[in-house]
Amino acid sequence: MSQPLIIQGGMGVAVSNWRLARSVAQLGQLGVISGTLLAVVFARRLQAGDPGGHMADAMVHFPLPTITERVLASYFLPGGKAAAAPFKPVAMPGVNLSKPLNELTVLANFVEIHLAKQGHNNPVGINLLEKIQVATLASLYGAMLAGVDYVLMGAGIPREIPGVLDRFAAGEAAEIAIDVLGAPAGTKTTARFDPAELFGGPAPQLRRPQFLAIVSSATLAITLAKKSTGRVDGFIVEGDVAGGHNAPPRGQLQLSAIGEPVYGPRDVPDLPKIAAIGLPFWLAGAYADPAKIAEARAAGATGVQIGTAFAFCDESAVRPDLKLEVCRLALQGKAGVYTDPLASPTGFPFKVLQVEGTLSAENVYAARPRICDLGYLRDPYSRPDGSIGYRCAAEPGEDYVRKQGETPALAGRKCLCNGLLATAGLGQSRPDGTVEPPILTAGNDVSQLARFIPAGCESYTAADVIRFLLGESAAT
Questions:
Q1: How far is 103 from 67, CA to CA, in rounded Å?
Q2: What is the distance, to the nearest Å, from the Cα of residue 424 to the centroid of all Cα atoms in its chain?
Q3: Which residues are bridge partners to 332 per DSSP?
Q4: CB neighbours (10 Å) of residue 475?
Q5: Which of 261, 270, 436, 452 is least crowded, fewest Cβ atoms below 10 Å from its Cβ?
Q6: How far apart are CA 451 and CA 191, in angstroms?
Q7: How many CB atoms lie within 10 A of CB 374?
Q8: d(Cα 265, Cα 260) in Å, to the nearest integer?
Q9: 34, 13 contact by CB (below 8 A)
Q10: If we measure between CA atoms, which residue out of 311, 138, 135, 305 comes closest to residue 215?
Q11: Using CA atoms, how far apart are residues 29 and 26, in angstroms rounded to an integer?
Q12: CA distance 44 to 421
């Protein structure tokens, strides 16, 4: 398989949806879907009535129709739910997913990849967060059933994932270790997925996708290349100006005058060392410019990963009104992000785009009651009796403290699960008549979005981005 010059980032919750990934792949670059919370996204699409019938079209190809029937019976609402009605909840994930959640997760990932691969013969990838360990195995297997070509994973140390891909390709069961806070020394908790249980007998052999680890340092890249459980096929080297979660600065955390983490020379990836590993790598973080692509290639990179430029194009799943507002801010030179050291309950710095009416506004954040009803960013922790509990620093404070969490960890935390779903137009309706407010993330170069917008327009397409990156004017 020839390697792409441009990888489209797998962003947010449903931002990098099948439409965006398919459009980029049709243009000859690597389209990537976001696998984050995809079970919830899929269930809510079905409750919205499956506009256009795309989910139904893809489910016909799923090899286990009894699972499809069970999922449809649970979530599909012909014509869609009433606008003010809440979405039916999806069970929160734990170390080993319940059978219904396992099936829903596999089917959701299959459908998204299947749709992204229609209408062309080019590769498609899936992006997952290592931090969300409990949903990883079912997500990977569903994507592999649909023939996913690349798996991209960061936000942690995904050392075990290459071996998982090997085992799933052989039709075998796989396990990964689950990080449990406060677990006694010497104990190990694992999550397990057995394809044979899904099929009720021997599982088919599948094609193994290429695995690209998202890293921020040469040290991590070298470690993964040498110590992963299977073959690592390349790296995406992400700088601190990239959107979403960022790696924390090395050393003791220092904050700027406005409260952002301060990055220094130690945080600049050592590209010669990464190149010396001998595997393809792509650079990410403000590379959406032909000159920057040339710079990356001169440094030995195969190409670049681009996120923010694609996040606000017509094909992404960001709510149309939010995309329009961000494009207008960019045209006015007013689009900007804040690297928030507190927003994410994961503890990683998280870039928040400053837009009125979203969780970036203090009044919107203060008005939202703390609710944790999705649970994908919860941390497993060891209870005094040895059992496993789950807590999130964005949940109600009294619940978090009752679960042995420390009060200072609650400050400034935002519910990214609900906020990012709202960004994609899938926000939950609450009993008081409100809808979950969105939260937008973007890289530092969101201020440069105007370069992709054709003259006289307020929006742009994935094709406009690709044309610009390949050296053509977006206005042509």
A1: 7
A2: 13
A3: none
A4: 15
A5: 270
A6: 45
A7: 23
A8: 16
A9: yes
A10: 305
A11: 7
A12: 10
State which amino acid sits at residue 435: V
What gap in Å lies between CA 107 and CA 66, rounded to an integer?
11
The H or E element that residue 305 is part of is strand 303-306
Residue 411 to residue 409: CA distance in whole angstroms: 6
For residue 37, what is the DSSP state? T
Question: In terms of Cα–Cα distance, which of 446, 447, 437 is closest to 357?
Answer: 437
**Within a 10 A sphere around the Cβ of 254, how many other Cβ atoms?**
11
pLDDT of residue 208: 98
Rounded Cα distance between 433 and 297, Å, is: 52
Distance (Å, whole) CA 151 – CA 417: 22
- Contact 307/243 with Cβ under 8 angstroms? yes
Q: Is the pTM of this model over 0.90?
A: yes
* Tokens found for residue 9: 């980032």
Q: How far apart are CA 313 and CA 324, in angstroms?
A: 10
Please name every residue paired with 390 in a beta bridge, in sequence order, or none if there are none.
Answer: 380
Mean pLDDT in consecutive groups of 10 residues from the start of the chain, 476 residues: 91 95 97 97 98 97 97 97 95 93 98 97 96 94 98 92 98 96 91 96 97 95 95 94 85 90 90 96 94 96 96 97 95 93 92 95 95 95 94 96 94 96 96 93 92 93 96 56
CA nearest neighbour of 451 among 315, 351, 306, 353: 306
Read out DSSP for 373-428?
Answer: SS-TTPEEEE-TTS-EEEE-TTS-HHHHHHTT--GGGGTT---HHHHHHHHTT-PP
In this prediction, residue 474 carries a pLDDT of 42
Report residue 349: phi and psi, to 5°.
Answer: -60, 145
Q: How far apart are CA 97 and CA 132, in angstroms?
A: 13
- Nearest of 65, 39, 63, 24 to residue 146 by alpha carbon: 63
CB 467 within 8 A of CB 475: no
Q: State how far the alpha carbon of 280 is from the alpha carbons of 32, 268, 283, 292, in Å.
A: 17, 19, 10, 17
Cβ–Cβ under 8 Å, residues 82 and 130: no
Contact by Cβ (8 Å): 342, 413: yes
Phi, psi of 261 (to 5 degrees): -60, 140
In the numeric block, the tokens 């742009």 are attached to: 460
Between the CA atoms of 150, 156, 157 and 160, what dihedral angle is there, to the nearest 10 degrees?
-60
The residue count of the chain comes to: 476
Longest Cα pair distance anywhere in the chain, in angstroms? 66
Which pLDDT belongs to residue 245?
85
Strands 189-193 and 174-178 turn out to be antiparallel
Residue by residue, DSSP assigns 128-174 as EETT-GGGHHHHHHHHHHTT--EEEEESS--TTHHHHHHHHHTT--E
One-letter amino acid at 260 equals E
Amino acid letter for position 231 = R
